[in-house]
Amino acid sequence: MRVNPSLVSPALTLLYRAWIRSIRFADGGGLRVLLNAWASERPVMLAIWHAELFSLTGYGLHRLDGKLATVVSDSRDGELIAQVLTRIGYGTARGSSTRGGLKALIALKRYIDQGRIGVITVDGPRGPRHKVKEGAVYLAHKTGALLFPVRARPASKHVFERSWDRFELPMPFCRCQVAFGEPLEFQGDKPTQEQLAQGAQRLELALHSTLPPE
Fold first, then answer.
1. Where are the domains of the chain?
2. pTM to 2 decimal places
3. pLDDT, position 214
4. Is pLDDT at 138 greater than 80 in this prediction?
5. DSSP of 24-42, one letter per residue?
6. E-strand spans in 122-171?
7. Bridge partner list, 154
8. Contacts of the segment 108-115: beta carbons below 8 A, 24+ positions apart
């Protein structure tokens, strides 16, 4: 039976807000660099792993309320997620690397041009896990945005071992470390395929370096 997203999204939004309020986020002051760049009217983007989406979306709600826009899958499940994100203040650009990708990047660029901070799960929506796709690098070229790698590490979490990304669900009331890497810059708004591939490799390395394994 199909669930009408409009019927369940209000309840899911309330549950998500309550869950996130219970988590104690700590970023070590790394957010200041991002906010300083954003306050100077420099376009800003965040690159995150799909597995850390729950924690980092909540961190964005907690610390960057109303400033963020992100890509959401153009699927039936994506419609529910998009409605919840809209209710918590995110701008949503519909599409993915496998469906409507260019449309989503164009929509996200509009949000960035309007002053929002763009967020892309760079290995989504279906992986491979921790392999950066080129969309975020392409958009950073087109907008001139600083691209910040961002990671999350909840102190207590459930890992969905059978999911392609090993999705992490932070436990209520846990502490969650959020780490910001050095921002990456990409020159030229007409990148070649070689530049996109090299940029994706740089970003992948930066994400791994931002929060090394425990």
1. 26-210
2. 0.94
3. 74
4. yes
5. EEE-TTTHHHHHHHHHTT-
6. 146-154, 157-159, 168-170
7. 176
8. 108/69, 108/70, 108/71, 108/139, 109/139, 109/142, 109/143, 111/69, 112/43, 112/44, 112/45, 112/69, 112/139, 112/143, 112/145, 113/43, 113/143, 115/41
